[in-house]
C-alpha cells in the first residue's frame, strides 16, 4: 500500500511539469486577432480590386469589344478604387484612433499610471499603414483582370479569360485570408468566389441590357 501511495505522489511533480509546459506553450502561441486590422484591410482591398475592376471591365466589354477601351476602363477603375480605398480606410482608422486616444486621456485624468499609458500607445491603430495596405492590396487585385485582358485580342476569348483569372484569384485570396486568420478555408474561398462571379454577371447583364436599349 505504501509503495503504491509513493508512486502516486511521485507522479505529481511530472504532471505539474507537463501542465506548466502546456501553459507556457499556450502563452507563446501567436494571437491571430492581432492580425485583424491589417488583414481585414488587405483582404478587403484585394477582393474589392478583383471584383470591382473585373466587373467594370466586363460591363464595358458587354457593349464595347475594343481592347483599348476595356484596358483604359480597368486602369481608371484601378486608380479610382485604390484612392477611394486608401482615403476611406484612413478616415475610418483615424476615427478609431481619436476614440482610443480620448479614452486614454480620460484614464490618465483618473490617475492611471503614465507608464501603462505609454505601453498602450504601442498597440494603437495606424491610419497611414492601414491606408497604404488597403490601396496596395486593391491595386494588386485589380492588376489580375488587367493583365489577363492585355494580351488577348479576340473578344470572346478575352472575356472568358478575364472571368477565369478573376475566379481563380478570388479563390486564392479567400484561401490566403483564411490561412492567415486561421479561419475555415473552404467556406472563405467559396464565399469569395460566389460573390465575385455574381458581381461580374450582374454588371455584364445590366450593362448589356442598357446598351441594347440604345441608351
Which properties best describe this structure?
215 residues, mainly alpha, membrane, Ccc1_fam, iron ion sequestering activity
Description:
The protein has helices at residues 2-28, 36-61, 67-109, 114-121, 127-150, 155-181, 185-212. By secondary structure, it is an all-alpha fold. Helix 2 packs antiparallel against helix 6 and helix 6 (155-181) runs antiparallel to helix 7. The longest helix is centred in the middle third of the chain and has 43 residues, at 67-109. The chain is elongated. Mean pLDDT is 78; it is low at 6-11 and 23-33.
Shape: elongated
Number of helices: 7
Series of H and E elements: HHHHHHH
Q: What is the multimeric organization of the chains shown?
A: single chain
The proportion of strand residues reads under 5%
Kindly name the structural category: mainly alpha
**Number of domains as seen in the coordinates:** 1
How many strands?
Answer: 0
Mean pLDDT comes to 78
In angstroms, what separates the terminal alpha carbons? Answer: 96 Å
Spans of at least 5 consecutive residues whose pLDDT stays below 50 are 6-11, 23-33
Keywords: Ion transport, Iron, Iron transport, Membrane, Transmembrane, Transmembrane helix, Transport, Vacuole
Membrane topology: Multi-pass membrane protein
Catalytic activity: Fe(2+)(in) = Fe(2+)(out)
Subcellular location: Vacuole membrane
